[in-house]
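Duplicate of #3305? Posting structure anyway:
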């Protein structure tokens, strides 16, 4: 009987896996950390040594108060400057007091400090750069996101963290980057606990605007729990009694369900929620929710992101593609041997039914 079950499982996988590739891009079409249509030309220009488009892009985000875009673009430009510094050195020399150049300079310095074995000491020296970026535009929450990352690296006490958090939310109450940075500080791996991390994330999600990525913050708490010594079947968060719905597995599933709802708010193959969708896929894999994970792969489309796959592999794109195949195999192994079209786990449409091919 065991041999027969193994044979049937193999037969199901061989027959169904190719069918489950519907809606998924080919491996060579998947991109890692692909820039959006605004950032792409800027990086190309920076690669040629021209900082002008980068300066213009960040100035536009500042003038229009596009704080979420400003945060993402600053992070990507600082990452590019770590390996190609000439264009950024020219920008700083030409406009040393430019608020946008000061912001990238602060982000770059914090990133370099984090990479050093003398992290805490180097990061303490970066404090004045963050202050300069914050003073350059008092409306901007992004320097305060950088300050929250800085606080984590310098072992800042909770009182200092709370002050920085208050400054961040005063400027932008629903800024995703600031919430993600605060969540890291409150995680069990740093200066909080799993319970504190989840409480913060769930409270922020309840207060968030409809469709905001902050509503998916609990799935970041779930990721932290799953990768920082947690599991998927721990009965309670602390020794004191807790209601059944507070069990670890129940809280993890609730976080995944909320992130799925956020993902459905955006179109498939939208680069904006790509990181949240990649993170959600990791959590769904750990929870062995294979069909939900396959649906997220279809919504991700070609937009793989380094995070979270770089936390488990030195080859994040290869890891993503390998796990994508593994998810298809798991789903295929549980499908009927004679699969009908109506048995395929198609993505749901916004109205709860099967999405039409035009939706992809």
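Output from current build:
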């Amino acid at each position: 009987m065991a041999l027969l079950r193994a044979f049937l499982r193999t037969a199901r996988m061989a027959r169904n896996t190719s069918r489950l590739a519907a809606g998924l891009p080919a491996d060579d079409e998947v991109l890692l950390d692909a820039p959006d249509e605004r950032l792409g030309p800027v990086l190309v220009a920076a690669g040629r040594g021209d900082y002008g488009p980068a300066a213009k892009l960040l100035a536009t985000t500042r003038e229009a108060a596009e704080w979420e875009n400003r945060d993402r673009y600053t992070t990507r430009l600082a990452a590019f400057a770590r390996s190609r510094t000439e264009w950024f050195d020219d920008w700083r020399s030409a406009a040393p007091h430019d608020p946008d150049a000061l912001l990238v300079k602060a982000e770059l310095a914090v990133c370099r400090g984090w990479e050093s074995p003398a992290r805490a000491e180097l990061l303490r020296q970066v404090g004045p750069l963050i202050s300069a970026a914050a003073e350059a535009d008092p409306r901007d929450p992004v320097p305060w996101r950088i300050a929250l990352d800085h606080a984590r690296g310098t072992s800042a006490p909770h009182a200092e963290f709370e002050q920085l958090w208050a400054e961040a939310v005063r400027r932008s109450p629903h800024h995703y980057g600031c919430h993600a940075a605060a969540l890291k500080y409150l995680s069990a791996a740093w200066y909080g606990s799993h319970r504190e991390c989840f409480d913060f994330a769930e409270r922020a999600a309840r207060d968030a605007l409809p469709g905001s990525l902050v509503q998916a913050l609990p799935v970041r708490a779930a990721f932290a729990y799953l990768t920082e010594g947690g599991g998927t079947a721990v009965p309670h968060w602390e020794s004191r009694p807790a209601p059944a719905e507070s069990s670890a597995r129940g809280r993890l599933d609730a976080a995944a369900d909320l992130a799925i709802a956020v993902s459905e708010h955006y179109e498939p193959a939208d680069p904006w929620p790509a990181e949240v969708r990649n993170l959600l896929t990791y959590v769904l894999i750990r929870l062995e929710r294979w069909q939900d994970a396959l649906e997220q792969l279809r919504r991700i489309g070609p937009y793989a992101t380094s995070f979270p796959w770089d936390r488990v592999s030195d080859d994040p794109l290869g890891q993503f593609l390998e796990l994508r195949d593994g998810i298809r195999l798991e789903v295929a192994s549980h499908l009927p041997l004679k699969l009908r079209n109506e048995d395929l786990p198609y993505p749901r449409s916004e109205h709860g039914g099967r999405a039409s091919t035009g939706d992809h």
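Confirmed duplicate; merging threads. The chain has two domains: 10-34+187-235+244-341, 37-172. Residues 10-34+187-235+244-341 form one domain.
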